[in-house]
Amino acid sequence: MLKFNTQARFLNRFSFSHGQVFKAIPPLPNGLKTGLVAALFCCLFSQNSIAQCNIVCPSSPDIDLSLDALGQATLDPTVFEPLVSSSFSQCLPANGGVLEIWEDAAGTIPYVTALAGPNFNCTDVGLALPPVFVTLNDPGPGVQSPSCQFNVTIVDNVVPIIFPPADITVNTDPGPSCASVQLMAATVFDNCMGNLTMEHVLTGATTGTFPTLAGTHAFNVGTTTITWRVDDGVHPVFEATTIVTVEDNDDPTLVGGSPTGPAGNLTANGSCEATFDIVAPEVADECGIFSYEIDLNYPSPMADVTLFPNPGGET
Question: What averages of pLDDT result for each successive group of 10 residues across the chain (315 residues)?
Fold first, then answer.
């Protein structure tokens, strides 16, 4: 029977020297000893690394989430991966770590719970989300890192582009109109077509401002510049131009035939001179008459006469 009369005896009974302990362990092969030691250090190192996962935040929490060429954007971990880092490589997503987005700084409310997203489109341009928070963690049971705050704004960085019609030179159309009627239209590319304001402005021989990028216009003789304009409300107004030149290559016409007039009467002084009136014929041109000339040869050559049309008329 064992008796423990005093505390000292109790300790003496159950206290062994290190030598005694290791003598009690049966001999192990050297390879097995090495494996046990490596496993021990690996376990200790792994537990220590897991517990130390941290995160390094960028200098500014403000970031833009830009719509793509289709007018779409998604707020997911890939947006933040290039913006944060860690002292421990195993915490980074590239090395198996996990980046998570939260709606609170403590990292307890996952995104998306109450906030907008994660998918955004053209109707969200200019939207500033409430702050979101990002943490890092490794694949093991380690401690989650502190959080980084981010203030996200949805933006559109795609600039609209106009493809205008080529410059054109045309003749006036047949008929009484002194113009060429043309259908002119420009095309535009943008990721958010519904956000665009479009118009085209005519200056020069023909003037006017018209909505949209298409229209049928009667262009006057001369040179008209069409300025096509597109505004997406974000970038400077994008412009392109088309030059329309209308030429008048149709000859004017005589409406009433050759000049006519009554025969003259000899004057009383016997000088063989006669005085009579000449009625000029009517002339016409769809673009108007600036001036016309009558060649007098009745019955012998006389000085030519240049006439100008009456104000408001062409005769």
Answer: 39 44 52 50 44 86 96 97 93 92 95 94 96 90 86 96 94 80 92 94 94 91 94 92 89 59 53 59 58 59 57 43
From CA 101, how far away is CA 106, in angstroms rounded? 11
Query: Residues 6 or more apart from 231 whose CB is under 8 A from it?
Result: 196, 197, 198, 237, 238
Sequence-ordered list of residues with C-beta below 8 angstroms from that of 171, at least 6 positions apart, any chain: 180, 246, 247, 248, 249, 250
- Chain Cα centroid distance, residue 217: 29
* Fold of the domain built from segment(s) 62-155: Immunoglobulin-like (2.60.40)
Query: Can you say whether the dihedral through the CA atoms of 128, 130, 131, 135 is positive or negative?
Result: negative
- The pLDDT of residue 276: 56
pLDDT of residue 280: 62
Closest of 224, 237, 219, 215 to residue 162, by C-alpha: 237
161-247 to CATH, choices 3.30.450.20, 3.80.10.10, 1.10.8.80, 2.60.40.1080: 2.60.40.1080
Check residue 5 and give its pLDDT. 41
Distance CA 265, CA 198 (A): 72
Residue 221 phi/psi, 5-degree rounding, is: -60, 135
- The structure tokens listed for 120 are 């955004």
Domain boundaries of the chain, sorted by first residue: 62-155, 161-247, 251-315
Task: Assign 3-class secondary structure to 246-304.
Answer: EECCCCCEECCCCCECCCCEECCCCCCCEECCCECCCEECCCCCCCEEECCECCCECCC
